[in-house]
Design a protein that fits this description.
Blueprint: H1 3-7, H2 10-38, H3 42-64, H4 70-95
Helix pairs in contact: 2-3, 2-4
Length: 97
């Protein structure tokens, strides 16, 4: 069984679909939270984040079905989500909230 056959097996496809749906949702939600922490005008920042979050979602969906391995896709999505949440915490900490 070649590597391409293994990556398109049932588990590989399931991992890619989960990365596309769940990972895309998580990264777009982390983006909205980060946008809310970046500005004093939170309502406008959150609305702007919600309007632009589809870009992160689409990027995650497209990348989830790229030739990269599902393990690498999950790893990079997790790192991006953690970086966005860490930046959110840092911004809130610096502003004293």
């Amino acid at each position: 069984m070649s590597q391409t056959d293994a990556s398109h097996s049932g588990w590989g496809v399931g991992a890619r679909v989960a990365a596309a749906v769940l990972g895309g949702y998580a990264i777009s939600s982390a983006w909205v939270v980060l946008c809310g922490a970046m500005s004093q005008a939170r309502v406008e920042a959150i609305v702007g984040g919600m309007q632009s979050s589809w870009l992160w979602y689409v990027a995650a969906v497209v990348w989830a079905f790229s030739p990269a391995s599902p393990r690498r896709i999950w790893f990079v999505l997790s790192i991006l989500i953690l970086l966005m949440l860490a930046a959110t915490i840092a911004l809130l900490y610096l502003r004293g909230l």
